[in-house]
Design a protein that fits this description.
Domain HTH tetR-type: 14-74
Number of helices: 9
Radius of gyration: 20 Å
Strand order of the largest sheet: 1-2
Distance between the termini: 74 Å
Pfam families: TetR_N (PF00440)
Keywords: DNA-binding
Structural class: mainly alpha
Shape: globular
Order of helices and strands: HHHHHHHHEEH
InterPro entries: Homeodomain-like_sf, HTH-type_TetR-like_transc_reg, HTH_TetR
Protein name: TetR/AcrR family transcriptional regulator
């Protein structure tokens, strides 16, 4: 008779780590960031809290890893976008911002993280912001700045407004209501209008250049 292989936390470290990360997401979604205590995370994951320290070093580092896995801009890589950059980043910009707009709508945990960012100052959240800025700086410096030249800061400002608008519209729709400037942002038709506006603004910026 073959020997039975016991699958436990030590034998399956990666699965255990993922369950701990998933627990952070579950708590963030249902209880908000105030519920992210080590004992609560361990209980939801079904493990002893010592495994959090063993696998991540601290609760903050566990939360930090979870936040990075959810944040859209921390995971953007122009090499993986599979888009022609010969247009100075116009199509890349459209793809990145449209994906962010749709992705944030679906990701309730990321919505909670952004609200957390806006309401509290923590090293974890500051680090996330810095990582996001680092990714954005790479895209600007390597792709759009060379195209816009002396007007590169103008395009950065336009992008800042678009990203901020994407955050606000999704958070407003998720927490407060469905209508913004008379547009039903929960309906497919309303979201298509917002998506078209994003594309039109980017097209305008590149034509203006």
């Amino acid at each position: 008779m073959p020997r039975k292989v016991v699958q436990g936390p030590i034998r399956d470290k990666e699965k255990t780590k993922q369950k701990l990360l998933n627990a952070v997401g579950k708590i963030l979604k249902t209880k908000g960031y105030s519920g992210l205590m080590v004992s609560k995370i361990a209980a939801v994951a079904g493990f002893d809290k010592k495994l959090i320290y063993e696998y991540f070093g601290s609760t903050d580092k566990l939360i930090d890893e979870y936040i990075r896995s959810q944040d859209y801009w921390s995971r953007v890589d122009e090499k993986e976008m599979n888009v022609d950059l010969s247009d100075g980043g116009k199509e890349m910009s459209k793809m990145a911002l449209l994906n962010q707009y749709e992705g944030l709508r679906k990701n309730k945990e990321l919505q909670k993280i952004i609200v957390w960012e806006l309401s509290e100052s923590r090293p974890i959240l500051k680090k996330l912001f810095e990582q996001r800025e680092e990714v954005g700086e790479g895209l600007f410096t390597n792709i759009t700045d060379p195209h816009f030249g002396e007007k590169s800061d103008e395009y950065r400002a336009i992008t800042a407004l678009l990203v901020a608008g994407i955050y606000h519209l999704n958070l407003y729709t998720a927490h407060n209501g469905t209508t913004f400037c008379g547009i039903d942002t929960k309906s497919e038709d309303g979201r298509k209008k917002i998506e078209k506006a994003i594309v039109d603004i980017i097209d305008f910026a590149y034509q203006k250049k």
